[in-house]
Amino acid sequence: MPESISHELLRLLxxxxxxxxxVAWLSDANRNLLRNPRAAMRPPAGPPDxxxxxxxxxxxxxxxxxxxxxxxxxxxxxxxxxPPPPAANTPPVPAPPAVPASVRFSPASQEPPAAPLAPLAPLxxxxxxxxxxxxxxxxxxxxxxxxxxxHVVFGQGxxxxxxxxxxxxxxxxxxxxxxxxxxxxxxxxxxxxxxxGLDRLSEDPAQGVYIANIVKCRPPHNRNPEQREADxxxxxxxxxxxxxxxxxxxxxGAVPLQYLLGITGITKTRGQWLNYGDIxxxxxxxxxxxxxxxxxxxxxxxxxxxxxDDLQKVMALLKLPLPPPRKQ
Length: 328
Prior knowledge:
Layout: H1 3-18, E1 23-24, H2 28-35, H3 62-65, E2 73-74, H4 130-138, E3 156-157, E4 163-167, H5 172-177, H6 184-195, E5 209-213, H7 227-244, E6 248-252, H8 254-261, H9 266-269, E7 274-276, E8 279-284, H10 287-292, H11 297-318
Parallel strand pairs: 4-5, 4-6, 6-8
Antiparallel strand pairs: 1-2, 3-5, 7-8
């Protein structure tokens, strides 16, 4: 390149750079490549040693000598670049599949929903005796209550008793001792049984009673048993009833009424005879409900009288001696 031309070119480039413009020179070959990109896929027509440099210019020295001095094309800034429209035969990009609503989850947790619990396996206890039944209960892991229990509370009392009491589940004291109704509510139940002329510790079938619960492991914080927990434990209780063969059953509170007979509403149902198979059933208040009103003597007395009326109906059915009527 002549010296005058190179000086003039450098002067023009410096002036354009000072004015804030960016320019780049393109050879005829590179300009044709931009106009026809498919040409880049074909092998070069020149000799085998003619290769492309890292800047995109050919190694052919003749391209540099043909560089014009006045045709400098400015490079458009990237922000102003508009992509070319797609070719007519370009297939559309498919949209991603929609996520079903059943498997969507909150971005806050970023955890998928828990899988549903497997159905409980059926238990065939028809041929199970007392020893085998108690052993199955001691090793039971049919629900989550087994993870927090200290002892399985199987039941207690005369296994040929005429009368059976059924509560809801063990509390703290029962869980620690492995026996039903040994806390404050249990002490009140013992007094109620004694008032009927019976003894919860008697080995005499005519005087003893049998006590069990809907669930045999303590629910956390003494909450009511949940449906799945009751379903897991009910086969054991039903087999206990079959083995005892009581002449009557007393249900203590709303929970055994709901899970054993499928009836809700202990307040409107107590005192009315129901049936479990061919066994008469008397629902009444749980002793814990009476204790709940210990700070209100009037309410406590009213609830005690209601429970005592219910128990006297049981005594009449079993032909137990009734106490003399109270003087008004």
